[in-house]
Design goal:
The protein contains eight helices and 30 strands. By secondary structure, it is of the alpha+beta class.
Length: 503
């Protein structure tokens, strides 16, 4: 069967999640039941840090690069809330802003929005999972190596990146245990232990020793395969550097290769039934590393595209809303799929108590239903998929808000002592992949001032983080500060609150 035929079957097999979760054409059919036996499917997977939303140089070149690579699924970093625009520019029907993935194949969000994966349906009911990461950039290893740090110091400086990737590795192990193949890709901001080998010592002036970089060692230990090194095992013959790229000059930040330690920090890993048959670097025309050239190149990172064969796994039981943050008056499209038991009803229940809204889904194994929100009060709602006996098969959460409601940010105390942990909570966030909480001097403009410390919201609509000695630049000195929530790796402030630190 041809690739296009398989893709058509997959698209006919599911109504993709819309808006904040995934987008699809409005006339897409409902999903079919899971197929009994999955077949191997060719798939071209790409990872692409587009730099500050992709429009520093030329936004059209982002789509141009994806098209030149002939990619079918793309994990984007530094999307800056541009994921819907990228999908529209490509003419693709599917995107997931929660994980910054755009796709020619249908995308399905997991029932539990705290799970970091998104499912790509390659055949009716059969999927591969994508995990997209952008790890912290501070204490960049090659810079520290060039400054003369020892191997022990280099390893110690990676602790924050190891902590950052651990939840994603746990998700990858869970998915593989469920026989779901996994792509773990993104901007790791870390060299690879497979690159800084004994043979590579001296090939660059700052590579003076073999370094078991702990971030990639942790990925290896989780049972994932470095896709680039599976095709190009010798780091001396094929370094595969992805940063920095020589994109055209723009006012302000221009890393360029001159005087900057370069490395392969944009990485792709696979787990489960995935075979990588080819992999290529996409980048600027004049680079000897580039294999697929695009001009003008839009980013300070080169992209990586892999040609693979994937045997997808069964989707399993899931209930997935079209969007998790819903303005009152808008409809909620709810996709569901049940295995081993017929689905009978979808029930939406207010968390604060009150009457539930029930929709009969006619004992169908899978499908989609629409809920109107005009009669729902603002608040948090659970959506439950139940079988004919009233047993709950899956549950998810949505938030209904008044139109034009901004996120709310609070701290657990107005005043702290130096060294005391600061807990920052939020609700009503858009739930983009890389929304983040930044700590600034009180009232600072994030477009002009530098943050003091930060953490991602992990794409949550409602949640909290604690700033303590586990974050860089801790502790805060005595003074007045603001905690902001900012959009999707950008410096667009969505909301904030003030607090004080005393001696």
């Amino acid at each position: 069967m041809s690739r296009q035929s398989r893709k058509t079957l997959a698209i006919l097999g599911v109504l993709s999640v819309l808006a904040m979760s995934s987008a699809c054409t409005s006339d897409s059919p409902e999903p079919d039941a899971t197929t009994d036996t999955a077949q191997s499917v060719p798939l071209k997977m790409m990872t692409f840090n587009i730099e500050y939303g992709g429009d520093e140089v030329d936004f059209a070149s982002v789509s141009k690069a994806i098209e030149a690579a002939d990619a079918e699924v793309v994990a984007v970093q530094e999307g800056y809330a541009q994921i819907p625009a990228i999908a529209e520019d490509l003419g693709w029907s599917y995107y997931d802003a929660r994980t910054q993935v755009v796709s020619q194949y249908p995308l399905i969000a997991p029932s539990d929005p705290s799970n970091p994966e998104v499912y790509v349906q390659l055949e009716p009911g059969n999927v591969v999972a994508v995990l997209n990461v952008h790890l912290p950039s501070t204490k960049f290893g090659p810079n520290r190596a060039a400054a003369g740090e020892s191997v022990e110091e280099l390893i110690d400086g990676e602790r924050h990146r190891v902590r950052a990737v651990e939840p994603t590795l746990s998700a990858a192990e869970r998915l593989m245990s469920e026989d779901i193949p996994v792509f773990l890709v993104g901007d790791f901001n870390s060299p690879s232990h497979l690159d800084w080998t004994a043979d590579a010592v001296g090939q660059r002036e700052y590579v003076t020793a073999e370094v078991p970089w702990p971030t990639t060692v942790a990925v290896d230990d989780a049972g994932l395969t470095d896709m680039y090194r599976s095709v190009h095992p010798d780091p001396v013959e094929a370094a595969g550097d992805t940063w920095p790229a020589s994109r055209p000059f723009v006012p302000g930040y221009n890393p360029g290769p001159k005087g900057r330690p370069s490395d392969r920090i944009d990485q792709m890993y696979s787990g489960g039934a995935i075979t990588t048959t080819d992999i290529a670097i996409v980048g600027e025309e004049k680079s000897p590393i580039t294999e697929i050239p695009v001009s003008p190149w839009p980013s300070d990172h080169r992209a990586v595209v892999a040609t693979t064969e994937v045997t997808p796994g069964a989707l399993g039981t899931v209930v997935s809303p079209s969007q998790r943050l819903v303005e009152q008056g808008s409809d909620i499209e709810v996709l569901y799929n049940a295995t081993g038991s017929d689905a009978a009803t979808l029930v939406i229940t207010p968390q604060a108590g009150g009457d539930a809204v029930t929709s009969d889904v006619s004992d169908a194994a899978s499908g989609q239903q629409t809920f109107a929100t005009g009669g729902l009060e603002p608040g948090t709602y659970g959506i439950s998929l139940q079988n004919t006996g009233g047993d709950e098969l899956a549950r998810t959460t949505v938030w209904v808000v008044l139109p034009d409601t901004e996120p709310t940010v609070t701290t657990n105390k107005p005043t702290y002592k130096v060294g005391e942990p600061v807990e920052v909570s939020w609700t009503g966030a858009p739930g983009n992949k890389w929304d983040w909480i930044g700590i600034y001097k009180e009232g600072a403009d994030p477009n002009k001032a530098w943050y003091l410390m930060w953490q991602y919201t992990e794409a949550t609509v409602e949640g909290s983080v604690v700033f303590d000695d586990a974050v860089n630049q801790w502790p805060l000195k005595a003074g007045k500060y603001s905690a902001y929530i900012l959009a999707d790796d950008s410096y667009v402030k969505l909301g904030g609150t003030d607090f004080e630190v005393e001696e």
